[in-house]
Amino acid sequence: MYGRKVKFRFLFVLLILLTLFLSVFLILKSLEENVVYFQSPSEIKILSEIENKKIRVGGMVKINSIAMQAKEVKFIITDFKNEINVIYSGVVPNLFTEGKGVVAEGYLKDKNFFLATKILAKHDENYMPPEVKAALKEE
Amino acid sequence: MFKYFEPNRIFSITSKAPKYVLFLFVIVFSIGLTESLILSPEDYKQSHSVRIMYVHVPAAWISLGIFSVITFLSIIGYIFKIRNFFLISKSLAPSGLVFNIIALVTGSIWGKPTWGTWWAWDARITSMLILVLFYIMYLIAWRIYENDTKVFKITSIITILGIVNVPIIKYSVDWWNTLHQPASINILSKSSIHVSMLYPLLIMTAAFALFSLLIFLMKYNTELIKIKNKGLDRL
Questions:
Q1: Is residue A66 part of a domain?
Q2: Which ipTM was obtained for this model?
Q3: Which among A13, A37, A133 is the nearest to B78, CB-wise?
Q4: Are A44 and A108 contacting, i.e. CB atoms less than 8 angstroms apart?
Q5: Which pLDDT does position B231 carry in this prediction?
Q6: Residues A25, A44: one domain?
């Protein structure tokens, strides 16, 4: 049907694609630690040593954990298995509320205590009008 | 079989098409804008800033879609030596690049009020930036090489290298912790976006697709005219 050259070109492209996908997959797999934008409190718990290096911790803001004080905000980041206490002084983003996602950038003092220099709100994939949200709550 | 076909016959269709596409685009785009900016509800959490989504998400989809189409056409064109497919790819690329940049810029504008930052080096955003670079490389390659067989090969290679990035963009939010939220729209399972917000999103996507088609037709006609001027009667 098709000439030999067409078959060879087909095989050639197929092999290039296969090799590329595999090698990129392996590279990303081995770089996993650097590709993630933040670590969860559980991952912090199993760290072998605490480095004085800027890291990001992400998770949910624990319900009833935000304590706003004159100069600083204290709250707890949880992934529902482990928790970490965070202290931050500065302006928090609009979407920063209890029970919602957050990413804190800063330094780890110890495994339970995190000094944030920047707070980012992480929002989820749910979009709905306020009425629907209210109706969902009633259910 | 499909190696040769007359540019004149294609041109007689593609030269008339833009005005109809433009007409359709204006209608769909106006409906999309009224739906997304006025009629659609505000979000329970983000309130009105959710409206950026109606530009951001369709633009990202279109840029990914166009890159996939370009790659597909380039590979098929390379295997079966179909010249026309390369010209179609070349004409598609500029709108893909523009929508890719729109997605990044609107994402940045959206990120500031919601996340609290203009830019984050998370996997989704970085991989989208890499796609922009591939688009630019692809378009520059067309400018650099005059020789047809050379430019076809080089642009094919660029698309093949770039296509590896596309699944990474798609699944980056599922594979790794990212600041970017996961996909709201799933074909297989229930979408986590309310219907009243889904419709404007789909209408805007249709509008952007029509716009890409319009720009594509204009670019493609230019290519056909160039071929005609060279005095070649076949592609």
A1: yes
A2: 0.84
A3: A13
A4: yes
A5: 67
A6: no
